[in-house]
Amino acid sequence: MNKLVWCVASLGLLGCGALVDLTGIETSSAHCDFRQSGPNGREDRCQERVEVIKGGIEPFKGLCTSIGAVAGDGPCPREGVVGGCFIGEQGDGSDVNDWYYAPMTREDVRGKCTSREPFLEP
Fold it and tell me: How many CB atoms lie within 10 A of CB 10?
């Protein structure tokens, strides 16, 4: 059985709050870098999806390139990062983070994070 289907089926059978052993489920990370271009023009920002179940990486990267940004494997580059915001967890258990780069300041980044999106240290 497909690992993603197995995982979703297991979550449905176990209910909320249950611990699910995801050992053996292949995950990967990818990022969407807006520093060169994007739908709003150039931004000092990169969004990453961390520990995505393998099948979810390509759609994320495809969407990224379709909006004019630069997709890549692995987390966002850390050189020049001044801080980030934890955006949330996806249904597949992956985390979404936005990272911001100089010339933005830590205070600028903190202003972009909400109480539901905590600030991430570089």
Answer: 13
With contact defined as beta carbons under 8 Å apart, do 77 and 113 qualify? no
Q: Which of 58, 53, 57, 122 is nearest to 92 (CA)?
A: 53
Each residue's pLDDT tens digit, 96-105: 999 999 999 9
**Scanning the structure block, which residue is given the tokens 């202003």?**
111
Q: For the chain, which residues make up each domain, given as ranges?
A: 27-120
pTM given for the model: 0.77
Whether the Cβ atoms of residue 81 and residue 36 lie closer than 8 Å to each other:
no
Edge to edge, the sheet with strand 45-53 lists 70-73, 27-33, 45-53, 95-101, 81-89, 119-120
